[in-house]
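User: For my dataset I need records formatted as: sequence, then C-alpha cells, nothing else. Please produce one.
Assistant:
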Amino acid sequence: MTSPPEPSPDRHPSTVLDQRIETAVGRSIEKLWRHRDDGLLDAPHAALADAHRGLVRAERDVTFQRARLARLVSGEFPVDQALFARIERTVDQLAHAIDERDAEQATAAAALEPIEAAAPRQAPRQVPTRDFAALLAIAQGAKLHENLVTHRLAVATPSRTRISYAQLQRLQANGLVDRDTSHPVHAGQPVTLTDAGRAVLAAPRPAGPPGTTSSPRPASSPAPAHLRR
C-alpha cells in the first residue's frame, strides 16, 4: 500500500490566525515572512513570524494525516485486518498532529496578543529615494569611520553606497538610525537601523520618488486656421 503524496511545500496551508495577524501587522503573511528573512522586523514581530511558521508546519502535518485517513477509508483498498491496523495508526498520528498544531497555535496567539494590544502606530513616513537607499545599505551593516590623516568622517557599507556624515546625521536626527558611540570613531562606530528605520524599509513604496507628482502637460492650443491644412 503506497502512502498518499505530501502536499506541495510551496503552498502554505491557511491557519485560524492568518486574518488576525495580517490585520495586526498591516501586511500579508508572505510579506511578514519575507521581512523576517530580510531582518526588517523588530523583536515582537520577528517572534510572531517565527511562531506563525511553526503553526504552518504543524497545520501542514494535520492536513497530511487527514488526507491519508480520507484515502484509507475511501474504498480504494481491500477491507481487511491490515487496513484496520493502518487506519488505527493514522488516527493516532492525526490526533498527535492536532495536539502539536494546537500547541503551536497557542504559541502564535501569545506572540500576537501584545502586537494587537499595542497602540496603533502612525504609518511609516516616506523618505527621499537617496535616504531609502542609505537605509538599505545600513541594514546590511555599516560603520562610521574617521580618516586619521584628513579627519573626515564617512560611513562604510558592504554595498559601497555613498553615505555622507551629514546624511547620517539627518537620518539619526529623524530617529531612523542609531550609532554606537561606545566605540572610537577611528576604529569604526557601528551604525544600525532603529525600529522606525526598519518600518520605513518594510512599508510599501510609491511608484515615484516621495514628494514628487507628475504634473499634467498643458493642453496644446489649436493651431491657427490658416495653418490647419
